[in-house]
Amino acid sequence: MRTDDRGGLSRALHALTARGMGQVLTAAAGLAVMCAVFGFLNPVFFSGRNVGNLLRQIAPILLIGIGQSYVLITGNIDLSIGSVTGMSCMLSATLMTRGMNPWVAAAATVLCCLLVGVLNGGLVAKFNLPPFIATLGTMTIARGIAQIVNNNYNTDSIGQAAEGFRNFFYYGRLGGVFNTIWIAAALWLAFNFLLSRTRLGRHIYATGSNREAARLSGVDVFRTTTAAYMVSSFCSCVVGLIVCATSGMGTMDAGNMYELYAVAASVIGGVSTLGGQGLLLGTVMGASIWGVLQNGLQFAGAPVAIRNIVIGAIVVVSVLLDVLVRSGRRRRKRDAGGEAKA
Q1: Is position 16 within any domain?
Q2: How far is CA 36 from the centre of its chain?
Q3: What is the pLDDT of residues 24-59, one digit of tens each?
Q4: Residue 223 CB neighbour total at 10 angstroms
Q5: Sign of the CA dihedral 137, 305, 316, 231?
Q6: Distance CA 280, CA 284 (A)
Q7: What is the CATH number of the domain that holds 95?
Q8: Residue 36 lies inside a defined structural domain of this protein
């Protein structure tokens, strides 16, 4: 191997390590252990039917996890994810029940949801609102829109005219695999390429690592932050369309708690809540751990409350470990700098 090839490989490995590959491998090991334990407790866990349903259950969590990961890497957070999902479900279903072509209704819904992402980006990056407050406000606004579009009622069935829409987003299969899984895989590939191989991706990491340094280096922080929030809103919108296709109607409470599931998928997979670190491969692991825990504990007969407690505890431990590790790194850098000066 030539020296320049070795140097390129070394730089690539260093970049992956800096962005959280260690946490990804840890999450992957934990996922493997959980699968082995649940498979041992109940052989049905590895049945073809359960694996297919499990993957279809993981797909929406992966999608909202991708959106939250983008935002977290910029050093922000998006609490509007669940409400945008509900808004997408209700808006698309309402338009369909009032005679609009399902695909036109879906396109109009995507545009409306993207506006929420633009609003979030403007409030956070342009007006310097704390992301928790800004997205808490848009969370409430989006939920209000979900409630008002059909006069505070769930919609009727979207009907036979939307059969193609329902098959595309949920019931259909391609090569024996549910379309929902294909959609999640395609969007993961697209957004992973965007994050890892493009200038926008580099700017997202730079903004999360040090916003002011990124700005001084020529990064358009406003555009970068807004783009991250638009990715989040887009992913939430797609999940809302999946929820609509699943139930065949619009429900005002669609997406409840999804913002927490998105955070869980991200941080369990090693995306740092402090910004500047994380890989979408880790989001796959985090979403899979969430799905396997839900599915495996259900097979084990654990009540919903216990499942929520377990997942909540894992999220807290994941964030705590991230904080401790990054604090230790900063302390070692300071110590090394002090020794060098001495």
Answers
A1: no
A2: 26
A3: 998 999 999 999 999 998 889 999 999 999 999 999
A4: 14
A5: negative
A6: 7
A7: 1.10.3470
A8: no
